[in-house]
């Protein structure tokens, strides 16, 4: 992996991604504490709605930004989105009303939804060699896992020195540093693919969705994404409520709980390449991980239903670590499954479609978790999420064929999927 970092352009882009992720992690912790200050016991509803706004921006804006990335200066677009995100982060500590949080989160996530696919479209042009690009994908996944682990620890350390509002300043610094790193390199000029009136970008987005829905293995992958979203929503929405409420822990323990989730995810991400290279297949591993997610949620629901005496701080840390590990076992091999199931020429459309559809799952689970927790309590909300995870896991086992046919390189019609069980 270090060899790919010898490429100066990619090294700067990867570093920009890392510092932006750290800033985002600080904002996640600070946003939960801000919601608790503004809404108290209803913080889960506020946070659930804010995260739903994030997912809505990703679902609606990201596919359009993917097409836009090939028509404008990528460096200008990336830098502009970073600066917008920095300004929003600086404004968040000054809000006094819940609606102001929603408005700023919409602007922040719209910028992120434009930044992420543009970054993803740039990396393969910076690294045209397939082996280098594969290493870059691995580094990117590791960066997300390290952020999940490192950002909460950093937030906990900062909270011991300053008020949580200063975490938003750290977020702004991260985005500003990301913009500076992008400015420091020359990025490839997008190759023109269509004129302004050409409808192909819209057809590409719709085509990717059809490819995913026509392929049994990829339909199973989407079902597992629903299970991951159900478990992840509990962690990201209800951590602050559980830690500060029933468990009565200080604010500094919120990032520690999120860090346990990140630690579980990173541990599995580091182990999976060796596991998959030996004997375990994705079809055996990923639905089993969905079952672990369901079991972890069921145990959490039971513990919460029994009351605070049955739900201790160490149990929360263990549960969050298990959920992080099982989620990583689903998410990390997902790209391998998609690449194997779709013809090479259809990969960009398929990846863009999966990005949107996966976030659509989170768009369902975030507000569901927030509003159910606020109205019926954490135990009932966790029970509902358990049902969703169980449905996704069982559906994945039913949909995923025992053998995945390899697509023919030149064929690209989704209509043939009915004969082969895969898009060819």
Could you explain the architecture of this structure?
- The radius of gyration is 21 Å and the shape is globular.
- It has 15 helices and no strands.
- α2 (43-68) runs parallel beside α4 (98-126).
- The two termini are 32 Å apart.
- Helix content is 78%, strand content 0%.
- With 424 residues, the chain is mainly α.
- The longest helix is centred in the N-terminal third of the chain and has 32 residues, at 8-39.
- It folds into 2 domains: 1-193, Growth Hormone, Chain: A (Up-down Bundle), CATH 1.20.1250.20; 195-424, Growth Hormone, Chain: A (Up-down Bundle), CATH 1.20.1250.20.
Notable traits:
mainly alpha, 424 residues, 15 helices, 0% strand, disordered C terminus, 78% helix
**Which second-level CATH architecture of the largest domain applies?**
Up-down Bundle
Overall mean pLDDT: 78
The CATH topology annotation of the largest domain reads as Growth Hormone, Chain: A
CATH uppermost class of the largest domain: Mainly Alpha
- Helix percent reads over 70%
What gross morphology would you assign?
globular
- Rg from C-alpha positions? 21 Å
Structural class from helices and strands? Answer: mainly alpha
Largest sheet: none
End-to-end separation = 32 Å
Summarize the structure.
This protein is mostly helical.
What is the topology?
Blueprint: H1 8-39, H2 43-68, H3 74-91, H4 98-126, H5 130-159, H6 165-183, H7 200-214, H8 216-244, H9 253-278, H10 282-306, H11 313-331, H12 334-341, H13 347-376, H14 378-399, H15 417-420
Helix pairs in contact: 1-2, 1-4, 1-5, 1-6, 1-8, 2-4, 2-8, 2-13, 3-4, 3-6, 5-9, 7-8, 7-13, 8-9, 8-10, 8-11, 8-13, 8-14, 9-11, 10-11, 10-14, 13-14
């Amino acid at each position: 992996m270090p060899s790919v970092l010898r490429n100066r352009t990619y090294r700067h882009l990867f570093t920009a991604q890392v510092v932006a992720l750290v800033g985002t992690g600080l904002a996640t912790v600070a946003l939960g504490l801000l919601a608790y200050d503004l809404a108290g016991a209803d913080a889960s509803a506020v946070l659930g709605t804010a995260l739903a706004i994030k997912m809505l921006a990703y679902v609606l804006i990201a596919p359009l930004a993917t097409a836009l990335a090939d028509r404008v200066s990528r460096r200008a677009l990336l830098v502009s989105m970073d600066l917008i995100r920095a300004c929003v982060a600086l404004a968040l500590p000054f809000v006094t009303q819940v609606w102001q949080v929603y408005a700023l989160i919409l602007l922040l996530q719209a910028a992120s939804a434009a930044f992420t696919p543009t970054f993803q479209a740039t990396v393969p042009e910076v690294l045209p060699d397939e082996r280098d690009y594969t290493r870059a994908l691995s580094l990117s996944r590791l960066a997300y896992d390290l952020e999940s682990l490192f950002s909460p620890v950093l937030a906990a350390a900062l909270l011991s020195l300053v008020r949580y509002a200063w975490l938003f300043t750290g977020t702004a610094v991260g985005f500003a540093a990301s913009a500076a790193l992008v400015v420091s390199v020359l990025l490839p000029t997008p190759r023109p693919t269509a004129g302004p009136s050409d409808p192909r970008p819209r057809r590409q987005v719709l085509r990717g969705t059809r490819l995913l829905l026509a392929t049994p293995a990829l339909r199973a992958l989407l079902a597992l994404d629903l299970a991951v979203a159900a478990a992840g929503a509990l962690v990201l929405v209800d951590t602050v409520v559980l830690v500060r409420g029933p468990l009565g822990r200080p604010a500094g323990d919120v990032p520690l709980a999120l860090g346990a989730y990140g630690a579980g995810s990173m541990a599995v991400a580091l182990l999976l390449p060796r596991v998959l290279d030996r004997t375990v297949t994705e079809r055996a591993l990923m639905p089993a991980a969905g079952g672990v997610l369901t079991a972890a949620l069921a145990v959490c629901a039971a513990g919460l239903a029994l009351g605070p005496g049955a739900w201790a701080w160490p149990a929360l840390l263990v549960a969050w670590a298990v959920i992080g590990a099982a989620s990583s076992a689903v998410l990390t091999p997902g790209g391998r499954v998609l690449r194997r199931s779709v013809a090479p020429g259809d990969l960009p459309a398929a990846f863009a479609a999966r990005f949107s559809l996966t976030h659509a799952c989170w768009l369902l689970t975030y507000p569901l978790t927030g509003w159910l927790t606020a109205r019926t309590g954490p135990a009932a909300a966790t029970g509902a999420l358990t049902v969703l995870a169980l449905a996704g896991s069982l559906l994945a086992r039913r949909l995923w064929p025992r053998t995945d046919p390899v697509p023919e390189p030149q064929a690209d019609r989704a209509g043939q999927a009915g004969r082969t069980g895969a898009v060819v």
